[in-house]
Amino acid sequence: MLTESQGALRPLSPSYLHKILELLLMHIVSLSQPHEAASVLELSRSLEYEHEVRREVTLQVMRWFGEVDNADELWKMDVEKVVRQVGLGILRQHKVGISVCHP
User: Which of 29, 45, 48, 78 is the least crowded, having the fewest Cβ atoms under 10 Å away?
Assistant: First the structure.
């Protein structure tokens, strides 16, 4: 996946994307935010100051995995997309070679 940083598209590795999604989920819970209307400002600040994830990157990930209301600065998380991506990230960490035998 690509993210825009300082006006240029840059690749975002699957492991970094997984980390950002895990951090977003953790902070939604710790800040007692509803996933239907989480504060973009609080989440992006938390990730930036506590984990050095730039605000632009956090916002791009939020847009990929939900809807961002710019007027109210709220993120409506697409739970299905987030769970699917986090699940893929977990499986990727435990990837093992699987061979398929045909009779």
Answer: 29
